[in-house]
Design a protein that fits this description.
CATH superfamily of the largest domain in chain A: Nitrogenase molybdenum iron protein domain
Number of helices of chain A: 17
Radius of gyration of chain A: 25 Å
Largest sheet of chain A: 6 strands, parallel
Oligomer: homodimer
Number of strands of chain A: 14
Shape of chain A: globular
Strand order of the largest sheet of chain A: 1-11-10-9-12-13
Distance between the termini of chain A: 77 Å
Strand content of chain A: 15-25%
Structural class of chain A: alpha/beta
Helix content of chain A: 40-55%
Largest interface: A-B, 131 and 130 residues
Number of domains of chain A: 3
CATH topology of the largest domain in chain A: Rossmann fold
Chain lengths: 426, 426
């Protein structure tokens, strides 16, 4: 943890510069995987799953029986917890789609937008050390609310060709039944081209390692949309004297345990808080299971001392963190100062974990300063909004002189003619 | 114009396959331009503008005086037309931002979203044969409504270093005063890195040729968001016996005049309509100024004869056109069948030109089948939606057991601890 005292804005930009993602050129290996999957379909998936996951498959499909059986391996308590989280996420994400009203822009001209579900979508859930069933909720719930017809879920198998039953059970709870045990760039390629078992999709969602990220970029060049660019997870805590150092330390640690590349930033106008937080981090760290990761990621933790809370927000807006925790007096009032952030946690009693799992907000959020321009995942991520317009005789008569002037000035006379032939018919 | 009779769905997919965009590898030249602009700033812009636009600059900035003077060169009639279009676009785009309500997901947990403007945005307006001032409205109006603080407009100069005054006048009307005479990939590079004159932006909007498109992709890899992938413009007309062949022919011609790569599709269940439309296209073509382009793009025009209107919509949804014109009986009722399209024009009296200029809907729309997953530009394209949440004591107590179960099952005990330390303080 490094403390920076009263840095100038130019300096702040350097201090908070994210580590450059070593974009090792993965295009060779990604292109190879895509070519193989395009040419050989399912059989390519078996080859690649053997190579990368060391698992032997004779089908990538997870049977409905396996999905059903998963319930035996999930505790009652965990089921209850996931159900509550599911309900909250559902409640918040249902509030996000509104019917828009028809707007009469000129007499006789009516315009409106309609949210229409993206028909086929693919969700990618990474494997690895922890089963990220919470991400199944965060992607699956809004997809269902949006009304997506074909929802595919891909997740890598372990060496024995198995998927964690909590992932299967959560998918079933959400209503997803097309689940495939395929991971990595081959999963993205399969959803891009389609194989005998796996349907081609229109948009791919979900986190992943650098191979998955590179594969999603490749998919995008092939006409498949993706949710957003991915990067390491981030938290920024803005605190003042009113903050509890025990809480702040726990918030920094919660972020730091994600991975060795986790980004952890504290901005405060209180020198005494910094002292207390640094001490508390050491104390709390020792009880935790992911010490190896913590020791690594905490080294990179940055603490900035500012002159006042106003400056703290200014700096946080420059950083544009994925998660922003506001632990100050009048936290809710201060929240109006936030210009760039993915999700904001207001007050001393709102740790990020609430949003990670169960408050109802989405945990798929923009990282790497993309919070300046991207929103996190919402129900809107699973629809497109189509515009409609209808003109009456009165309407086209009203706009005809406008179209004539503008189309001819742009040198597009057939544009004007398409109006004129209609006028001539009256 | 080629007529296909009653094709099977598999065949339809082949017929309506877009021509592959010859993605000549432009990365070498784009990388060179970006490097030069990053290293040399404005002076690189002078070099590149001399090279590509044959214009000598000593500043890329268009002075406020030049912007003001533009009014002398725009006719009264055109000004009036642009003002009406501006008002309609404003009216429709103002209706798109709504305050969302706070949602209590669990007792003591409140969640909400807030639309926050993207601070700095760049608009690219292509040069070339026609001054696309309508695109200035389509991008500038929603940017202003969204509340973007820094709006930059780049457009290439002609050989004499001049910008078309209609573009300047329209920009002034919208309220944009930071206008730069820089075009091509160097404009995109300037907005990505920032130069002495041109500020770095968070998101870049606007159409352009293959160099601009490749440069926008490059910008995206450097952390700048872009509006959407660009491709040739498209129209699909669905018509039945009730359609007027004169109108339909004029709609096909209006699309065909855009460029030699324009995509023009007619889908109808009426063989007699096809006959009449083909004849009418020949008749109307002769009066038009862009004959060279028309002769080229009409060759590629596809006409599909279907058994019924239901099938016509099924085929149009597979194609996912940028613009869809519905010229059938019960056109508005049929509009509910649209699953994939950018903007829809309902009925015999709603030609695409209305939406291109003045109905109020946006004309920046997804092409190349991206209408399956992308929306056109709206006010929402210029904001991000930040989520907020606040827990009371009651709220965190309610969710604590949920977080405990889920965090521990995901192996993230520091996540649970950040809740536990708060409970311990009660």
């Amino acid at each position: 943890m490094t403390v920076y005292k009263y840095p100038e804005i130019a300096e702040v930009k350097k201090i908070l510069k994210r580590p450059e993602i070593k974009s090792k050129d993965l295009s060779k290996v990604i292109n190879k995987v895509f070519k193989l999957v395009e040419d050989k379909g399912d059989s390519a998936l078996y080859t690649l799953t053997k190579k990368y996951d060391r698992a032997s498959l004779n089908s990538p499909i997870i049977s409905l029986k396996d999905i059903k059986n998963s319930e035996k391996f999930v505790s009652k308590k965990l089921k209850k917890a996931i159900k509550i989280a599911n309900k909250n996420i559902e409640k918040f994400h249902k509030s996000q789609i509104k019917n828009e009203l028809k707007v009469v822009t000129t007499e006789g001209i009516v315009c409106w937008r309609k949210s229409v579900p993206i028909e086929s979508i693919g969700l990618y859930i990474p494997g690895g050390t922890a089963p990220l069933f919470s991400t199944v909720l965060m992607l699956g719930v809004p997809a269902k609310i949006a009304g997506c017809k074909n929802i595919i879920l891909c997740t890598p198998p372990d060496k024995n060709g198995q998927i964690n039953p909590i992932i299967l059970w959560t998918a079933k709870l959400v209503g997803i039944s097309k689940i495939f045990k395929v991971g990595g760039s081959q999963a993205i390629a399969a959803m891009t081209y389609g194989t005998e078992s796996i349907g081609k999709v229109d948009k791919i969602f979900g986190p992943g390692n650098q191979f998955v990220t590179a594969a999603k970029k490749k998919a995008q060049t092939l006409g498949v949309a993706i949710d957003m660019p991915a990067g390491p997870s981030e938290v920024c805590v803005i605190a003042d004297n009113s903050a509890n150092p025990i809480f702040v330390a726990s918030d920094l640690l919660a972020q730091a345990e994600h991975g060795t590349d986790s980004q952890v930033v504290l901005i405060t106008n209180s020198a005494s808080l910094i002292k207390a937080v640094v001490k508390e981090v050491e104390v709390q760290k020792n009880g935790l299971s992911r010490m190896n990761i913590l020791n690594f990621s905490l080294k990179n933790c940055k603490i900035i001392l500012t002159t006042d809370t106003e400056s703290s927000f200014e700096i946080a807006n420059i950083y544009a963190p994925e998660h922003l925790i506001i632990s100050t007096l009048n936290a809710e009032k201060n929240a109006s100062k936030v210009k760039n952030a993915g999700s904001v946690f207001i007050g001393n009693l709102t740790p990020e974990s609430l949003g990670d799992y169960a408050s109802g907000t989405n945990h798929s959020l923009p990282t790497n300063a993309f919070a300046k321009s991207y929103s996190g995942i919402s129900t809107e991520s699973f629809v497109k909004k189509i515009t409609f317009q209808k003109a009456s005789k009165k309407g086209i008569l009203n706009l005809a002189p406008v179209i004539k002037e503008m189309a001819l000035a742009e040198g597009l006379d057939a544009h004007w003619k398409s109006v004129e032939v209609r006028l001539n018919s009256f």
